[in-house]
Amino acid sequence: MKHISTRFNLRKHPLIETLFQLEGNPKVLTFIEPLWGIPQSLIAPYITLYMYALGVNDVQIGTLMSISMFVQVFFAFGGGVIADKAGRKATTIFGDLFGWIIPCVIWAVSQNFWFFLVAIILNSFEQVNQTAWNCLLIEDAKPKEVLNLYTWVTISGLLAVFFAPISGLIISKTSLVPVMRVLYSIFAVCMVAKCLITILFATETAQGKRRKRETRHQSIRYMIYEYKYILPKIFKDKPTVKVLAIMVLLHITTQISTNFFSLYATENLLIPKSALAFFPILRAVIMLVFMFAMQEKLQKLPFRYPMAIGFFIYIGAQAVIIFSPTKSFLFIILYTIMEAFAFALVVPRKDSMLALYVDPEERARIVGVLSVAMFVFASPSGYIAGKLSSINRQLPFYLNMILFIIAMFITVKFTDPLPEHMEYDED
């Protein structure tokens, strides 16, 4: 009886109920997310080491980060226009093709800095489909479902992390470069499958159909010209500015952690390369437990409170990694746990804020403009982080700490609650 009762209670959990109630695009996109998440999880701990093994140094790694963000400015700027003109579904599909499938093939055969440069420029096209993908995911969903929906997208990616030790195990028995070439090839195949499923089972959203009709006879030039009316609307709106500031700071800190953690951990803290794949699993377990045990309890709070706590934990995590002794798995584990808690508190709420604050009538173009602004402000950070890392590999994490302090201050400073009718409307 106890087993039956436990299963019954789990079935009644809001996240589980949301999963069973998913229909249409949210269901399709959530369930195929592992086709991106699994290969990405296999590769992610070793991307920087792969570049390093092929002769790309710290400054070049940082330069690639900055170039990527600079190029993404242009793709993000056009993303909203393309999503309106071509539709959310078509834009998502072509974004996966040019932003992931082709770059993965190039990464699989990379030989030096220039291969990575070409691949990362093409990968920047992913920003076009990111705008469309978000619209495709949430435009036909109810506002009260958005946080749980983004939580499930996060969970879907987290479950993929459990495949990460496979790459670590293989690399420990062979060598890094050939394994990464195979994994990037697998990544390309998975993204082809993802595109085919999207073509067959996803449908254009109601707002996407409306915007296609409205823009049918409008030129791209005219649609871009219309941004002059949208920009003041964005930057005069305090909640939207808050979201933008948090987007910028999180993007910079994420890029720094992604690109320099593995290098610092293996080259300076002398953590074995084969062990890197196990830390994302610990992170995923912590986040999954948190999301099922705590997310519901925090859901009724204004977003700023859990987010401020999350940024405070992020700050502590940077201190842990900075002062970690050599070969100390304990400190790396503590850093991973703290970073997981912080991510679970901050990121789903940031994504939900982006979805809920933005005017649904102009969602695609506003999200595109916000992405452009994010990359414009963030683009110098890659080169700066690379230079700092070339001086001392602890310095990028000091930079992260400063940025998280700023983010926490912004989160506390802005006290705008979510619009009441969007937050927990049961109608």
Based on the model shown, name its key terms.
disordered C terminus; single chain; globular; 427 residues; 24 helices; mainly alpha
Write up this protein:
With 427 residues, this protein is an all-alpha fold. The protein has 24 helices and no strands. Helix 6 (58-86) packs parallel to helix 8 (113-123), helix 15 packs across helix 21 and helix 19 packs antiparallel against helix 23 (395-413). It is globular and about 60 Å long. It starts with a helix and ends with a helix.
Pick out the low-confidence regions. 1-8, 417-427
Distance between the termini: 36 Å
Gyration radius over CA: 21 Å
Question: Which bin fits the share of residues in helices?
Answer: over 70%
Number of helices: 24
The description of the largest β-sheet is: none
What structural class do the secondary elements suggest? mainly alpha
Which band does the percent of strand residues land in?
under 5%
The H-and-E topology, N to C, reads as HHHHHHHHHHHHHHHHHHHHHHHH
Total beta strand runs: 0
- Please state the average pLDDT score: 81
Morphology: globular
